[in-house]
Design brief:
The termini are far apart. It contains 12 helices and 16 strands. By secondary structure, the chain is α+β, with helices and mostly antiparallel strands. 41% of the residues lie in helices and 19% in strands. The protein is globular and about 75 Å long. The strands form 4 sheets. Strands 1, 2, 3, 4, 5 and 10 form a 6-stranded antiparallel sheet that branches. A hairpin with a 5-residue loop joins strand 7 and strand 8.
């Protein structure tokens, strides 16, 4: 890249972004305004810039932009890192192109998604290393944290709610897209796990925040952490093993797909993380009133889901009963302990590193309010979510074997898929108990309530995005409301 050759007119750049961003945002996977039933919410409202900071001048330049979008009273804030470069400079185009600023004496200035530009990302990394805290955007590092510069950058294309940029095999920068003022859960939890010591998570190395763009206070914009080299995430590894089993090849590997030992190890890793979070951030027992409030929260989510997914209506009464069982437990003297948890745990949120499983992405469910994501929860909530993920992995393998979710269900492949799910759910629970976590099978009422809550969430998601997959969470709900309590 060349040295700076022109001065960016930030006012003109922001004016063009305000015009072109609404249409561009609608095509981003991380833009929440398009959620809802198919065909609804596809037209984003105008955006209003609340922060525009020139992080690096020159050609190309790097602009950090935060915009407010949405109806009054329902606003959302989004971050976009914008590259500003002349067309002749070879700036990226295609689906990264946001807009153009006409230049009277030369080629247009291209405005594009800067995370796709390795050189600009290297400039951003250097800014993080400098710990600049004087501007509207501050850069911070934990005491003693060091990291190398000059590493090649590449964007991780599988990201959905945020955008991650890897630097070689050493660093990972998570650029937050939908911003919420206040302490960021991932930064909080990674910092706590780092304090605890040898815990299967990534070390936080730096972060960016703004202190004056939001009236509610400091807001995290990006988090730099260690890169975790791995053989793959849990979802890809589990579904590959499950497909072998469902396809009839269980006997050629270990019983039921050969993933059970990995599932057991994953249970141990999850328990270690929960233990460390409780040690660093505390845990406490819920009183009867708080238990009733927790049950009311679960019921409230159910009532909203019933309005959107009528297929849930036949199970509504039994699901409400599962929630009502929680305060009855507290009333009978059963200890309901709560603590900080992962909040969105599934097979896609764990990596199989050479030394074992590593949990990642501790921000919770991004679409939920920050207060809710930071609220202490029973640790079994994470366990229930992971058990649901094993069920999904088995069904995904079944669909691969049968040729899709609409293919004929039943028969031997379906029985193999069900057996694989039961076997690995049991192994995960056993591993969790072995590493010192409370055995989830000894709290069947709690486990059923949170597994059902997760299945209801899945039903809403599938109804909105993949109607052919809706039978998966519905089958789980049918099992949970009719079978005797069981962890598997």
């Amino acid at each position: 890249m060349s040295a700076p050759t022109h001065t960016v007119d930030l006012t003109r750049v922001v004016a063009e972004l305000q015009r072109s961003l609404p249409g561009w945002l609608a095509g981003r996977r991380w833009y929440a305004g398009k959620q809802g039933k198919q065909g609804e919410g596809q037209h984003p409202p105008p955006v209003e810039p609340v922060l525009a900071d020139l992080l690096h001048p020159g050609d190309p330049a790097l602009v950090q932009l935060v915009v407010r979008a949405g109806r009054r009273g329902h606003e959302e804030w989004y971050q976009v890192l914008v590259g500003v470069g002349r067309e002749a400079a070879g700036a990226p185009a295609g689906n990264t192109l946001i807009g153009r600023v006409p230049e009277p004496d030369g080629p247009d200035l291209l405005l594009y998604e800067a995370t796709a530009d390795p050189w600009l990302m290297s400039r951003l990394l250097a800014r993080l290393a400098a710990e600049d805290t004087d501007g509207r955007v501050e850069c911070h590092r934990p005491a003693g944290a060091e990291f190398p510069l000059g590493l090649p950058a590449r964007v991780i294309t599988a990201e959905q709610s945020n955008t991650s940029v890897a630097f070689g095999d050493r660093l990972m920068l998570k650029v937050l897209r939908r911003l919420v003022p206040g302490p960021h859960p991932e930064l909080e939890l990674l910092t706590a796990l780092e304090r605890d010591g040898d815990v299967p998570s990534a070390r936080p190395l730096a972060w960016m925040r703004t202190t004056d763009a939001f009236p509610a206070g400091p807001t995290t914009l990006a988090v730099l952490q260690e890169f975790v080299p791995s053989r793959g995430d849990g979802w890809s590894l589990a579904t590959a093993q499950a497909a072998e089993c469902v396809g009839g090849d269980c006997a050629s590997v270990a019983p039921l797909g050969g993933f059970a030992e990995e599932s057991r190890a994953l249970g141990r890793a999850t328990a270690r993380v929960h233990t460390a979070l409780a040690r660093q951030l505390g845990s406490r027992e819920l009183g009867p009133e708080e238990a009733r409030a927790l049950a009311a929260e679960l019921t409230g989510r159910l009532e909203q889901a019933l309005e959107e997914v009528p297929e849930l209506l036949p199970y509504a009464r039994q699901l409400r009963t599962l929630h009502q069982d929680l305060p009855e437990l507290a009333g009978r003297g059963h200890r309901l302990l709560v603590q900080r948890v992962h909040g969105d745990l599934h097979l896609g949120q764990v990596l199989r590193a050479p030394h074992g499983w590593v949990l990642i992405d501790f921000e919770g469910e991004p679409g939920h309010p920050l207060e809710e994501r930071r609220r202490p929860r029973p640790a079994v909530r994470d366990v229930a979510a992971m058990l649901r993920s094993f069920d999904y992995a088995a069904h995904h393998a079944l669909f691969e074997v049968l040729g899709g979710p609409s293919a004929r269900r039943g028969g031997r492949p379906a029985r193999r898929a069900a057996a694989w799910a039961v076997h690995n759910r049991r192994a995960f629970s056993e591993g969790y108990a072995e590493a010192g976590g409370a055995d989830p099978r000894r709290s069947p009422v709690l486990l059923r309530a949170f597994e059902a809550d997760k299945a209801v969430y899945e039903a809403v998601y599938e109804a909105r995005n993949r109607p052919d997959w809706l039978p998966i969470p519905l089958a789980a709900i049918r099992r949970l409301v009719h079978e005797r309590p069981s962890a598997a």
